[in-house]
């Protein structure tokens, strides 16, 4: 049988990261390629307690079908929390619970982007979102990321050159994969440009709570007096990715369309997971939990950067981070980065080649991404030592 796939998906390739995960599954390989939370960052005891209680006392409430908008108490508590802590969301917005933030990109593409319309993304950007936009046949236009966020002159050029641009997709805090945080000045500029050119912004912020140093920068959504920002938050990096609970705060007319689109996707997000998240953020000390995560990751991030200084200089340089789970590393231009990453796997270390995160994967790239949250300290030291020794031998 010759399978004839739809135009939407026939050009889609398996994600380079998933391909690399095949090697990462080999226990003798040190994987610096994942983006998983550290095993000791999960509130397992609390999740077990909450689940046991509800299953004993009111099981049908979490086993029955539910509403597409999401578990009402969780929506209410999140809306209050985001307003109080981050001045994010207004009376003109509503909040939808989604199955991971990944689903927000899917619902926004479905609701807002026609085939061939442009989504402006940071270059590099999160591969999962890029692939979702691609699956709707959006045209991706990349705007380079600088140490203080996307280049706003290039953003304006992209907006001028693409009058059919629909969305600007940005990850302003501890960007995946570059680790960069956008300055407040640039956030304001991106907002102004979006307004000027009549384009919506998706602000994807799964790492915002994981700041280890530097000053808090307000969300772009907190500037949104014109109803042009769709905010994406997720519990994946602060409670559990397996529970698949995320949320979007969007202008009401967009929220309503996203709800209709979600009905066709998965009816609603797992109600049991939503219930557990709600109990955890309201009945336990969520801010103390976040502080504990920051403590775990501050140590791991500093350790990782010390190892990079110790083993990788001078051939590998890297960008210091203030938060998040990733460090972006650069090789000298005379080293073929994709070949370097392939050969590194044979030396039992796995990193993600940087071109996987570009809007055009065929563009030349001399960078790669490493993650420090998943490996143990012993694995980090072993992996980075091999990485540095190999780069410096070339
Ligand atoms: C920037 C970014 N957005 C979205 C996601 C998807 O997260 P979720 O598990 O909430 O679907 C990730 C996951 O790594 C991410 O890095």
Automatic annotation (TrEMBL):
GO molecular function: 2-aminoadipate transaminase activity; pyridoxal phosphate binding
Superkingdom: Bacteria
Stretches assigned to the Aminotransferase class I/classII large domain: 29-385
Keyword set, alphabetical order: Aminotransferase, Pyridoxal phosphate, Transferase
SUPFAM superfamilies documented for this protein: PLP-dependent transferases (SSF53383)
InterPro entries attached to this UniProt entry: Aminotransferase_I/II_large (IPR004839), Class-I_PLP-dep_aminotransf (IPR050859), PyrdxlP-dep_Trfase (IPR015424), PyrdxlP-dep_Trfase_major (IPR015421), PyrdxlP-dep_Trfase_small (IPR015422)
A single BP term in Gene Ontology: alpha-amino acid metabolic process
Swiss-Prot/TrEMBL cofactor(s): pyridoxal 5'-phosphate
Top-level class of the enzyme under EC nomenclature: transferase
Coiled coil: none
EC number: 2.6.1.39
PANTHER family: AMINOTRANSFERASE, KYNURENINE_ALPHA-AMINOADIPATE AMINOTRANSFERASE, MITOCHONDRIAL
Assembly notes: Homodimer.
Family: Belongs to the class-I pyridoxal-phosphate-dependent aminotransferase family.
Identification of the protein by name: 2-aminoadipate transaminase
Gene source species: Ruminococcus bromii
Encoding gene, per UniProt annotation: lysN
